[in-house]
Structure formats: C-alpha cells, structure tokens
Amino acid sequence: QVQLVESGGGLVQPGGSLRLSCAASGTIFSMGWYRQAPGKQREVVAGITSGGSTNYANSVKGRFTISRDNAKNTVYLQMNSLKPEDTAVYYCNGYPIAFGSWGQGTQVTVSS
Questions:
Q1: Cα(100)–Cα(12) distance, integer angstroms
Q2: Which of 7, 12, 39, 96 suits a disulfide with 16, CB 3.0-4.6 Å?
C-alpha cells in the first residue's frame, strides 16, 4: 500500500503563498489534494491525472496550481492569494477516488 506524506503547511497572512508537497512511497497515478476545515466535510481542492490534466474546485481556480514530478513520486500544490477560508488540514490521495488510508495531512492557517 502506498504511503502518503504531506508537508509544507504553516501560518500565512491573507494574500500570502504556500507550496504543499505530497511524497508517495510508490508509483502514483491520478492524484488530488483535499482539505478539511473544522466542522466541515473533507472536500476536493484539485486533481491531476497521470498525463498532467488538471481540475480545480471553483473556490481555488486561478489561485492554486497542482503539479507533479513522476520521477520523485511527488505531487505539489502551489497556493497563492490565500484567504482565511482556505484554512484547513490539507491531504493528498488518489483522484477522483481516494485509495487506502489518509496521511496525517498538513495544516494551513491563513490569518492576520
């Protein structure tokens, strides 16, 4: 079973940027970034296929960019123009269907 480790989160002011990384222990195919805010259900943020096609939630279009490095089995999420409502724990997993267990995620907090 592929293990997923997310990193790169932190505290940032509104309008700031962060880059998240998701390192997989094995070969990955279509992958996505998800987030879960306190008291809310987990939601998909962005997805990328093995061929590089991307999809984004409407709430992050134009601000977030998902990318991948197949040689490193790593998926990235570049987040720009961050808003307080982006505050959540961010996870990566298979896309559009998650596989196996979820990692610990990485906390992103957008606050002044």
A1: 31
A2: 12
